[in-house]
Amino acid sequence: MTQLPLGTIQTMRVLRKMDTGYVLTKNTNEALLHYNETEHELAVEQDVDVFLYHDKKGRVIATTRLPNIVMDTYGWAEVTEVIPKLGAFVAIGIAKDMLVSVDDLPLFETVWPKPGDQLFITLGEDRKGRLLAIPATEGIIQREIDLAPQELLNQPIRGTIYHTSREGAAIITEDGYRGFIHHTERKEEPRLGEFVHGRVIEVKENGTLNVSLRPLKRYSRSEDADAILAHLEASQGQIPFDDKSDPEDIRGTFHISKAAFKRALGKLMKEGKVEQRDGSTFLK
Fold first, then answer.
1. Distance between CA atoms of 208 and 185, rounded to whole angstroms?
2. Is the pLDDT of residue 219 over 60?
3. Which one of 27, 120, 183, 194 is least enclosed by Cβ atoms within 10 Å?
4. Which of 77, 171, 161, 172 is nearest to 111 (CA)?
């Protein structure tokens, strides 16, 4: 007997009524449809479209609430709960939320999604046959995206992070374009599933975008200068950095490039707020 695949929508027939709901059947397979999983009263021998999943006891459960995301179909799902070392649960439109396993999340929990974030997922099964939410691979993303027009250059853009790493993060924009955010174009690594605001700094020949989450230089210089001042005040008026410091040391402390650090430092020196000597910077 071939089992009906979980995570799919099936047309099944009402076999009989029970105290708790209906028993449905198809090809000698049976599923339980609880009364609270359907909005309408059903009759024996009636055909009904249902989505199939397992409950906590491993029984096949049917619901007439049909989700947009099913097996091998991708869509956005909102994160409802995050459990360390286990994963993140997402809502797909049925009573049971689906788990995105820790194996499919970033290595560091600091960039795991938070409730309210959105993940681009489909449904699949683990080795025990349990339904899981599976994030889209890069190959799937390439299939789903549109080609970005050149007119987007220097324009503001918004999108959701679908991949993040130390090298950079990738987003799908609201209009369905793929964007890459190099680690030098952000102050901190965004979360998986986070909705971000940026600007297009390059439209590539392959129709994808390079995006910056940093403000324009004329705005970021003031922000960076304020951050350096705050760091000086928290460090008794002295920091072991000047305009010749190692770029990686600067990025590790201030999360900005050496060029941005030098611009901000120059602004503070011009304003007479700081001075440099012996490889360090001091508050005046």
1. 16
2. no
3. 27
4. 161
Give residue 3's pLDDT. Answer: 82
Class of domain 9-63: mainly beta
Q: CATH top-level class for 140-212?
A: mainly beta
Question: Residue 71 has what DSSP assignment?
Answer: B
d(CA 105, CA 156): 28
Domain 75-136 homologous superfamily, CATH: Nucleic acid-binding proteins (2.40.50.140)
* pLDDT-derived band at 226, boundaries 50, 70, 90: confident
140-212 matches 75-136 in CATH topology? yes
- Show me where the domains of the chain are located: 9-63, 75-136, 140-212, 217-283
Q: What are phi and psi of 44, to 5 degrees?
A: -60, 140
| Percent of the chain scoring above 70 in pLDDT | 98
- Say which residue the tokens 């002295």 belong to: 238
The answer to whether the CB of 43 falls within 8 A of the CB of 76 is no
* Average confidence (pLDDT) over 257-262: 81
Task: Report domain 217-283's class.
Answer: mainly alpha
Is the CB of residue 147 less than 8 Å from the CB of residue 23?
no
Q: Tokens 């989450």 label which residue?
A: 213
Band (pLDDT 50/70/90 cuts) for residue 216 is: low
Average of pLDDT values for 88-110?
95
Closest CA to 265 of 281, 245, 284, 248: 281
